[in-house]
Amino acid sequence: MNMSAGRERLVVIGGDAAGMSAASQARRTKGPDELEIVAFERGHFTSYSACGIPYWVGGDVGERDELIARTPEEHRARGIDLRMRTEVTRIDVAGGRVRARDVDSGAESWTSYDKLVIATGARPIRPDMPGADAAGVHGVQTLDDGQALIDSLTRARGRRAVVVGAGYIGVEMAEALINRGYEVTVVNRGREPMSTLDADMGRLVREAMEGMGITMVNDAEVTKLLTGEDGRVRAVATQDAEYPADVVVLGIGVRPETTLARAAGLPLGAHGGLLTDLAMRVRGHENIWAGGDCVEVLDLVSGQERHIALGTHANKHGQVIGTNAGGGYATFPGVVGTAVSKVCDLEIARTGLREKDARRAGLQFEAVTIESTSRAGYYPDSSPMTVKMLAERRTGRLLGVQIVGREGAGKRVDIAAVALTARMTVDQMTALDLGYAPPFSPVWDPVLVAARKASRAVQQGF
Amino acid sequence: MNMSAGRERLVVIGGDAAGMSAASQARRTKGPDELEIVAFERGHFTSYSACGIPYWVGGDVGERDELIARTPEEHRARGIDLRMRTEVTRIDVAGGRVRARDVDSGAESWTSYDKLVIATGARPIRPDMPGADAAGVHGVQTLDDGQALIDSLTRARGRRAVVVGAGYIGVEMAEALINRGYEVTVVNRGREPMSTLDADMGRLVREAMEGMGITMVNDAEVTKLLTGEDGRVRAVATQDAEYPADVVVLGIGVRPETTLARAAGLPLGAHGGLLTDLAMRVRGHENIWAGGDCVEVLDLVSGQERHIALGTHANKHGQVIGTNAGGGYATFPGVVGTAVSKVCDLEIARTGLREKDARRAGLQFEAVTIESTSRAGYYPDSSPMTVKMLAERRTGRLLGVQIVGREGAGKRVDIAAVALTARMTVDQMTALDLGYAPPFSPVWDPVLVAARKASRAVQQGF
Prior knowledge:
The structure is a homodimer.
Chain A: E1 8-13, H1 17-29, E2 35-41, H2 53-58, H3 72-77, E3 81-84, E4 86-92, E5 97-102, E6 108-112, E7 115-118, E8 122-124, E9 137-138, H4 143-155, E10 160-164, H5 168-179, E11 183-187, H6 199-211, E12 215-217, E13 222-227, E14 233-238, E15 242-244, E16 247-250, E17 254-256, H7 259-263, E18 288-290, E19 297-298, E20 305-306, H8 311-325, E21 339-343, E22 346-352, H9 355-360, E23 365-373, E24 384-392, E25 398-405, H10 413-421, H11 426-429, H12 446-460
Parallel strand pairs in A: 1-2, 1-7, 2-3, 7-18, 9-16, 10-11, 10-16, 11-12
Antiparallel strand pairs in A: 4-5, 5-6, 8-17, 13-14, 14-15, 19-20, 21-22, 22-25, 23-24, 24-25
């Protein structure tokens, strides 16, 4: 029950990016006399950069606290009633209340809400196999996970690390462990690492990682984690082989954490995430919003929902939710699927659809790949770059771009991200007025070179 | 007269980016049996990167020939009848012919054309003042200019250089001369350097350049260049002061080289450049095209013509002209005014309209400025960046972006360049799905932070 007459109560479940951005933005819009804000967080931290954990583990970031954008105390100072180590165990939609449990004491109680924000995040996929919970086996989803891994590395007897999974968390953790002086093996179920790229581009990543001294094992399903007599992990086993390991990092991916939402009968999509409208309201519910890693987002290129766990989306969702919950108006139109990551000096970027995404969406396309350089060829430190571009048959609409290169490659994907949002054709892209000077780009930017080739392919394949 | 029955002759005036791109693209489209291509170049070189000259002078590029994309011999090997050191002295539009003079022998003759491409480039503005032609005073427009400057630097007695002009050539030359160990003074007529930026952003450039040990003199009109007894420049004089100089570099800007076109009665615009249609045909002339630094281009943001001398545009024009002259179809829709440059580690970028451009175009706007960083704040080598953004009142349409920062700042302007091309509003931009990972960007990319602030300003100023 809300006891303050005339004052609404906003309840937020989850104290990380989406939840606390929503709370903060709602507070900016409405003062404490108009809107009470209660936020529940089951962990020890608020508003931190999970994306930064690999760099903390690798030593690029010195202190855990550098990853924390805003502490519980800072949130409280802004008039948010933040309840740490308090886990919401049930959402009573009909009753307009949530049940929460103090993690330490076990005490439970109901809190009523006028408006609810669900920002329960994602949970890492843990393989259901022997040894998965052994000492020395680590996820890297939370700050607590990161601290546990760092402690484990300090205790590990040898210097052999196995990373399971070769998505962006897997490759970033490979870099982190290399930086800490480990021999690193990456075991990957797919044909090539970075399955967010097409395999032909993933191959470039594999070759570069092998060049960095990382052992890449592809097409390999981990069957069990072997432990020593002390109970600590000692090797990773696949059907074909065993890989000795003093420490194992799991980077297999995440799923939306929607246990509460499912139990409350809220609408979930094909990927297990909450379904929202453009104002980030849970579909069919006027006063419940959801955002961050627990929701599905509209892919503007394919027209279908996807699940993408990424801090930048979570922050945008939080802004939109907080604006709306505070009585303003904002929408989140969707994503184009941009992602960028690096392994040592290798930069990897993608946006839009891969070949298989396009096929699945019923789109026919031309795919072209070009080689170019980050700067004018004659300028020092010009580095090679491969750009793959997909364009729809007949219409020539840009469908996706993948880039693998060195310094200056990754953020070039933004050009394509904006072009995708604007539904440009590759022919239109050939005329884009991009920044040119020899230290920044060849006279034809690599993205323009790809667009020219894609445009010719579309014309020829008409 | 064209003597080969059934075979058309394409004549190209000017052997640099636009002209030779046009010739090459026309050749790709039509073989020598269908199309004869004759190109005239009055200088010693073809298809070179004038934009690379500062880096050659500064020592980043070792050899002049690295700046040459394609030599006369390479062009000839592709079936282009290239006549070097041959200056076109007249265009006879009615007669469909051009008169050309061998620079060395002085011999003149007429060459008839079926199709003509004018790519006469730009000429540097030389101040009309005493001493402007003295030894030790140099422009940096052509490879010959660059070689003369390098020779002059070798001969100069002292290490004091004065650069006249603080546009992008001026600041790039300041860097080049610093790299060669000179004490550099930049004398600039404007209130701040980089008048392609608003003065508030130009101030950041000035402060950074002063921090590099460059003496910046603003609001200063050069009145004369003083020479010593040997006839060599010894100082640059303004109304107020004299600046000792062992070498002087003129970077005052360029004007379209349209003397021939004007004499032929072809249509010129307010900036002295040729006016073309979207297919790059000179207006009113079916069989004459023009491109590169001698034409005016449509500014897609203001809707007015501008003159911009930039290799990347010249190359695009050449592609379009060559395609059309070869019987295909292509258009050049216009520019948004993107430019990027650097002085040592300072990166400077702009696209779209400055405040005064917007006013001149009759646009009312909100202007905002934000500070952010190139990477997540906690990531190593994250560097500060200032982003200024202009948005139209009421509609919120993006009008322009200016960025001053360090590594990673410059090419971010491409995000805005694409958004301008797509006529996005700043509110739409707040939702852009840009590449995010801690080594590449804060969770809100600086351009998004600016868009959010601009969006709020538009809403408040409605």
